[in-house]
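Annex B. Sample input.
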Amino acid sequence: MDKIKKELDRLGIDFFENYDVVDISTIKINQIIRLAVFPKTIKELVWVLKLFYREKLVFKVVGNASNLLFISKIMFPVIFTCKMKDEFEVDGTSVTVSAGMQISRLIELLKRNKLGGVEKLVGIPATVGGAIFNNAGAFGCSISSNLTSIKVFYNGKVFDILANKIKFGYHFSNLVGFVVLSASFWFENKNEYDIISLCNEYTYKRTVLQPSGFSLGSVYQKINGKSAGFYIERAGLKEIRIGGIVVSKKHANFFVNDKRGSAEDFLNLQKFVEFKVNRQFGLSLISEIEKVGEENETSCRFTYPFRV
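Annex B, continued. Sample output.
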């Protein structure tokens, strides 16, 4: 790892040893990453990727970590794109942005250019790259709907992929192993007032429906077209707590960290909720949360599953 750190230092790329992910996680749970790397530009991101690929390191690339639960000390390097500078190009109704741009910043950019189409995504705490990888969506709109192409790093090379060549599903893409560097979208010309009005409408809906506080968003996928919260609530599990993690009173599909909860608290609450829902309804809840660092973590969870 010393060789890696020297090269990152030579390239002027920000990195931190024994980095506490609490500083960046949306659920604010303490967990240590042995080496966290924060590229500032697409160019720096490619440098880091090529360096790690050349050294055949196991590593992971993440955006805001808004749906990731780090559950043990992470011994492999993690590259965060969430602090990259915004890089973008607007050409009529075509917009190309860097993967590290926040969804909130993308929507602000579109407002300024009187372009609309993704107002329903307002409030999603994700980077563009992370949103594409997970096909983030809200209120029936997915980020893939307006996507035309992406630039990716894969197998040591950089190239473009048309959106119609990517398999997207409900909170799913087949981009495991690919690192999104930038993305191109098409949008529609819209009156700025209408864009702002829609953003305000969906911001209000999100405020009414979803709890505030530290969480990882929806914990489970929909079942039979209904939110998992429907079944969790009917199992009498609202406000059930394990340690510092509690099932939200406002929306039962959200687990909130309100008393310095741990990853172990979160996992134990998941097990309890899943057991109760299965016993009462005969249904198996499917987690939307990716657990990073668990002992039985399979190689497909890594951006690159090299063995050190």
